[in-house]
Hints:
The protein contains 23 helices and no strands. The protein is an all-alpha fold. The protein has one domain (3-17, 35-402): Up-down Bundle (Sodium/glucose cotransporter), CATH 1.20.1730.10.
Amino acid sequence: xxxxDVMIVVLYAAGLFGLAQWVxxxxxxxxxxxxxxxxxxxxxxxxxxxxxxxxxISAEQVIGQSGxxxxxxLAIAAYEWQAAIVLLVVAKYFLPIxxxxxIYTMPQFLQTRYGTGVKSLMSFYWIVLYTAxxxxxxxxxxxxxxxxxxxxxxxxxMIGLAAFAVLYSVYGGLKAVALTDIIQVVILILGGFAITWxxxxxxxxxxxxxxxxARLGKEVPGHFIMILDESHSNYGDLPGIWTLxxxxxxxxxxxxxxxxxxxxxxxxxxxxxEAQKGLxxxxxxxxxxxxxxxxxxxxxxVLAQDGALAAEVLNDKSDRTYGELMKLAPSGLRGLVFAALxxxxxxxxxxxxxxxxxxFTMDIYRxxxxxxxxxxxxxxVGRVVAFAAxxxxxVLARPxxxxxxxxxxxxxxxxxxIAPGVVTIFLxxxxxxxxxxxxxxxxxxxxxxxxxxxxxxxxxxxxxxRIWLVFLANIVLxxxxxxxxxxxxAGQPVLLSDIEFATTQGxxxxxxxxxxILALIYSAxx
Length: 526
């Protein structure tokens, strides 16, 4: 990092902090919980779409997926491209229910549908997941990349990232996070395309990115296959056709449909139409992500074979791929790319902190505090909880993820133990009126037990297939238990008669366009 690089990063950080403070100003009134946790329900579509991607594209994707691009290739892009379809389904069928019922949090919906017990159980689960898995992963992978480029220790880098995320977001809440995410996404995409261009140009020996891409297609054609064969060494993580037909969809719906730190942006929309446009915008942005994270990882494989990158470092720890690629950037541009990486990391950290604070404050603390009218008190509690969650994640990051070969795949497998149960109780809660509290408990507990049993009894089964089998079993279990037990209490079933699921012509055109693009991609790289 040269002086110019450091100045660019400092200017970026100062500008982001200043913008966050400006959009967070109270303008003469006390900040309410709706202001802090849902941005006053005033977010426009472009802020929602950009913030969704900024929250999602973190070190887990930039670092983890570039590392998997190095090891596996384009097949890992299924996590990104299939998500585009899921975003459109969520926009059309799930958001109308959440926004019509004025939902703050996912646990709040579960309380209205199944009762306080289910809400409390899932509140605890999500807080633990976001703190011990998601925050720790983003911090650890971000620390690895910064260490690779600057030589700063991983722990020092994590502390710096955590401090920056806290400083710019903890005061302003979701509004500060969502509106500054516009800047984050622009920097992220520009920096990502810069790395992609430089990596491909280096592969092409200075003859341009297209020349490098052509060379990749000739020399590592196996890295441009979306559907892996059973003989592939990474089939266990990406099991061929089952990535397209199986449990990957369950992970996607759990993440994009019922994950508080993602869906919270849409809950803060000024209207349903704005929320749906925002998710359609995010779906288009999602199509670009493999180009800026996976493709550079594939290029790194050839560059390592050429001796342009340290093959021994990448073979030992593939999660260091993006950090090594950043060294290709010249002075000045390296600062922009570094700022893009920081943008990806801190936006996700800020989003997770805000969601942890929202769930703890609104779904746990408020239930027992007995201060219904003291809005400023709950806002302060949210800020304290966000700060505490970050401290806990800093302590847990190295012990939890330091020894993992690929943090990205590890996170997917951890999440897969409960994701089938989460998706099942929401789907049954939406569309099956007899679903009750007993069936929800049975599904959530059954999901964990069945996942663990299959993991022990059939350790070689790909986890994507295991998730799919557990999900199907959960649907059957939920239906059966609901039929054999009492009806839900009055008012609990979701009434759909007053909910409008029709979407605008613009949304429909966008959905068709995304579908056609994905069909072409899979046809080309099957």
